[in-house]
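in:
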């Protein structure tokens, strides 16, 4: 029987983020030597990187950085919430975010290809895969610029790191209204800023569905145009940020709230882990 304790298992799990059984097997093989066990976990992890490529990484966290009117948001994913809350994973996410800021990344592909400590970010992640024993990936990156940019991070579970992240860019107004709008975006997940950003084909399809539904419901022919228009407007109010009812005052739209505060929302990004 290998000479190690429950404290050794706990310490190695915290250091590597590896699972309980993997840690026990590594300690058995290393005869209780934690340094050797760490090396074993890394070697076995590297061998398993390719196998993990097809696995789902739906846990993780979001990180944000804002400075001088530039906001960067990254989503870094893993397989389990155990790894998501591991400090080593958090440190890796911070490193990824710092790199995204440094290279002014606007998408995951360019970030992964960039050089960090003499390696590509992709290679850095592969090494982390090896040490932790889970698939780790950068799923999304966003960069938002404006006169004022604020970030908001929200925890959906108090035991986990932030899983919803928002950036909002505004001109005029003050930081408080921008922060209120960021919190609104976190809660109501708009897909676009303005109606013009929704392509004509999507709008036409919504209009067709609204008309077909109204006919199926037996609505009178003369009432169809008004009913269809109302339902299409409802679609806009659900998906368009400036048309949404404001979280703090549902009698006003987000656009109205911004205007009354002397502000204009010019851009936003919202990530929710795994969605």
């Amino acid at each position: 029987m290998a000479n190690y304790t429950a404290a050794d298992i706990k310490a190695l799990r915290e250091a590597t983020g590896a699972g309980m059984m993997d840690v026990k097997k590594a300690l058995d093989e290393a005869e209780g030597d934690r340094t050797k066990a760490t090396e074993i976990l890394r070697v076995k992890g590297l061998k398993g990187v390719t196998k993990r490529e097809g696995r789902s990484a739906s846990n993780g966290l979001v990180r944000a950085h804002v400075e001088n009117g530039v906001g960067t948001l990254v989503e870094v994913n893993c397989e389990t919430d155990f790894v998501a809350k591991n400090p080593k994973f958090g440190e890796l996410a911070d490193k990824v975010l710092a790199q995204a800021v440094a290279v002014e990344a606007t998408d995951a592909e360019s970030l992964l290809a960039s050089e960090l400590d003499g390696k590509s970010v992709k290679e850095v992640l592969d090494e982390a895969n090896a040490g932790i024993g889970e698939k780790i990936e950068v799923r999304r990156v966003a960069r938002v610029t404006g006169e004022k940019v604020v970030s908001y991070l929200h925890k959906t579970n108090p035991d986990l790191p932030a899983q919803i992240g928002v950036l909002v860019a505004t001109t005029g107004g003050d930081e408080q209204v921008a922060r209120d709008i960021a919190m609104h975006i976190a809660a109501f997940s708009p897909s676009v800023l303005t109606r013009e950003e929704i392509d004509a084909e999507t709008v036409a399809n919504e209009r067709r569905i609204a008309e077909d539904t109204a006919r199926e419901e037996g609505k009178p022919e003369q009432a169809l145009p008004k009913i269809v228009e109302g339902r299409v407007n409802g679609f806009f109010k659900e998906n368009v940020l400036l048309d949404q009812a404001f979280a703090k005052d549902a009698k006003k739209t987000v656009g109205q709230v911004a205007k009354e505060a002397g502000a204009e929302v010019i851009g936003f990004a919202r990530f929710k882990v795994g969605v």
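note: The chain is about 50% helix and 25% strand.
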